[in-house]
Design goal:
five-stranded antiparallel beta sheet, 2 helices, 144 residues, elongated, alpha+beta
């Protein structure tokens, strides 16, 4: 009886931790999406991101963390809908890229390593430096 209760409580605790971690990463991705759209002068559609892929990976320090891909849509002329992908390792920004066919990177932790790790061409003229947004803290509230 007590063993079963303890196991259930431990499982519940782990589920809550994963859920909170996913919420924090989603908030970070929404913040990055807003900043990216603002920086490249496009409109973020629906003001949200969608989790598309999650897997475990190693962080730069060697610990295990989540690698998450979020997608969001933006518009350049209020008519079309374009897809953009944000990749987070833990809560750290790895890259933001658009144009599924060419995998053009518009934001990257390191332009050269992003291109080498994914074997995708590097388009340095499209890279925006977002290193100031890659902190380990929760993103600041919107300034409106």
């Amino acid at each position: 009886m007590w063993n079963t209760t303890i196991v259930i409580l431990v499982i519940l605790f782990i589920v809550i931790l994963i859920w909170r971690s996913n919420l924090r990463a989603r908030e970070q991705a929404i913040y990055i999406a807003k900043q990216t759209c603002k920086k490249i002068n496009v409109q973020l559609l629906d003001d949200t991101v969608a989790l598309k892929k999650t897997r475990l990976t190693r962080s730069d320090s060697g610990s295990i963390c989540w690698l998450r891909n979020y997608e969001f849509e933006y518009s350049t002329n209020d008519i079309d809908r374009n897809l953009c992908t944000i990749q987070l390792k833990g809560y750290q920004l790895v890259q933001v890229f658009y144009d599924e066919k060419q995998h053009t990177t518009i934001v990257s932790e390191n332009t050269n390593s992003a291109a080498q790790n994914n074997d995708k061409p590097s388009y340095s003229n499209n890279v925006i430096n977002f290193t100031q947004y890659k902190d380990k803290n929760t993103p600041p509230k919107d300034e409106q």
